[in-house]
Design goal:
InterPro entries: Surface_antigen_Rickettsia (IPR016364). By secondary structure, this protein is an alpha+beta fold. The protein has four helices and six strands.
Amino acid sequence: MKFRVTLVAGLLAVSGCTTTGLSDTKVGAAAGAIVGGVTGNQASSANGKVASTILAAMGNGLIGGSAGAGMDDRDRRSALEAEYKALEYTQSGQPVSWKSERSGFSGQVVAAQPYRVGSQDCRQYTHTVYASGQTRTARGTACRNTDGSWTPLT
């Protein structure tokens, strides 16, 4: 019985790891809301506020420039959620896709391998937006803050 308890405790400790090693338990619930696209009654108001804070820290992300021209607020949020998911959870080179059913905008975010600058984890990433037969691509770098949010470098 003692072996089982130790084994379960060990498995629980390991289960908190992510492929990029960038997980932060303080933002787990809010990040889950962002990644899962949870909105409205599905997420508590506290998690919604934290999720909004995390996305607000990203500013306009890479879609703030010409890549995001013509997007409405809902499209921008979908695009920013994809940027966050790519930066926080996704292995290097793996695309995170998003698509608006209303406007025809869609996109794909690909983050590179994380690297350290001082005490911060940073990643270069690319966001490609597709709209009306056009492809627009933006490239940048973002660094992770202690609260789990990411700040794009300008």
